[in-house]
């Protein structure tokens, strides 16, 4: 007897005729066609239409194709295209091959936890781990865990550091916890990213216990201001300040700190990629002496979301900290993805990083990232020459911070830029002042995009001035 429920019959039919998937694909293609030209932020009408989703949970099962249409009709226009004129936060675009590879792997619907659940994912994780080691010039024994983003990579690094520093003092934090444990000192600086502060609090170190070190005017730690470091210290540095793009001086700090027994973690969410390029590599000089690194694919590498990596030179610490039992190391020869990340079940997110790296090659990574740097410099040069704007940072990488005559003016100009919808940039506070932050983080940004966007900034300034008079 082959009896199916109504919903089973409907789903078998959908799987067989695939109209649902064709529809989604057609809508996706339509979206992609306009994504690099359309308004950079949804129109007011598109935002208002989001009300169409406000309904109570349906009692009865629905029609798949209608659901996909609804999502496209009112969802697609309310999505933000991170194209060549999107400069907000540090949001990257997507490399076409990487997006296509992700799409294929979504149909596989793999659980990347273990080799036995997905041999292809396990294989690609090893391949990408090796490529990243080579690209960044890290020691062969470095391991990579594929996480949702840098926030999670930072947290995983805190756990590994905590494990190792305490283990060296004869304390197994995974068994004994933090109550009564020897004290860990956390040293970082005033410009560290908020995701590090979150990771510090989640790891149980307490934000109030941080030994905060002063930074210079670029937002880099001042090495001479570092306290005495020792084998109880977790030192957290940064490759790429989220506003200025500045890099801490790893060459001066990392080796010396390591020699003292400290654990060094580097948050390189978007900036670590400089270390994978020929022409910007100087920015990360000396970073190989750190113990752990957090880096995203979905920022400067331009993989689709969500794609982050924890790189750790101490495999035992990472696995022991994230996994319930360290016996894995002794008992299992096979690399299992889940032991290197906080999650167990997760999608095959390595696929899109593999595809991006395979497509770009080393030269492509270099070219793409250097081009972002050049375009950021172009943007800064135009604005620096425009009366009414002042560029506040030295553009070492892809970030530009700019202000107008007063905080109020800066805020109004930023809002006007956003309203004009030619390009999109957000705000930040830099050294107590309101600024507009421009992050060039898309493979698609051309010099024409920069000119068009800078013109929009100039227009916004003129409009705000005339509104005020
Ligand atoms: C320097 C830095 N660290 C960490 C993060 C957080 O990364 P994610 O959003 O991938 O968790 C960001 C995000 O912009 C960042 O710029």
Which oligomeric state applies?
A: single chain
The CATH topology of the largest domain: Aspartate Aminotransferase, domain 2
Strand content: 5-15%
Give the strand order, joined by hyphens, for the main sheet: 1-7-6-5-4-2-3
Radius of gyration: 24 Å
Distance between the termini: 81 Å
Average pLDDT over all residues: 96
- Structurally, the number of domains stands at 2
Written as H for each helix and E for each strand, in order along the chain, the element string is: HHHHHHEHHEHEEHEEEHHHEEHEEH
Assigned CATH superfamily of the largest domain:
Type I PLP-dependent aspartate aminotransferase-like (Major domain)
Label the CATH architecture of the largest domain: 3-Layer(aba) Sandwich
Low-confidence segments, ≥5 residues, pLDDT <50?
none
What is the total tally of β strands? 11
**Under the CATH scheme, which class of the largest domain?**
Alpha Beta
Number of helices: 15
Ligand inventory reads:
pyridoxal-5'-phosphate
**What profile does the largest beta sheet have?**
7 strands, mixed
Helix percent reads 40-55%
Q: How would you sum up the global shape?
A: globular
Q: Which structural class is indicated by helix and strand composition?
A: alpha/beta
